[in-house]
Amino acid sequence: MRKITIEIDEEIFNLLQEEATPFIDTPNDVLRRLLLKNDKSNNYSSMILPRKTNDSLPALPGGTPRALEHTLQVAFLVKFGKMTRNAATHYLSKIHGVAPQTIIDKYCRQLDLTANKFDRLLEDGDLRNLKEILHKKFPAYHEIINEYLQPQKSITNT
Prior knowledge:
The chain contains 8 helices and no strands. The protein has 158 residues and is mainly α. It has 2 domains: 10-48, no CATH class; 66-148, no CATH class. The termini are far apart.
């Protein structure tokens, strides 16, 4: 297929990075996934299936930014899985096959938080302040954020 060069601004580039799987996705892969996600004729339809990492974590819709996915999963494991943030970070790094620092990057640097500040947000009973931060950063995922962080039964087998 013929390649065409386009220019994008930094804000769009940053959004593409949030949607990308590091060291796997190219900008073209991300754009194809986002723009053609409802086109059943393309070869990428499997990329829009819900992403489920294991039985202890709820599925997230395909196309959910990795930064949001990892942040929601850490919060879920801490609040409902009774893990420490550090244990949840290492657990997810093994599931996703990435370094723990990659997971930490999602809930610290990309949200402009320190680990200490993130811990304080997780101590909030209804996670209201964390949800507000995530709603601002990912406005198109408002419903997903609220559903994922609803109080649920504690999980086991993690």
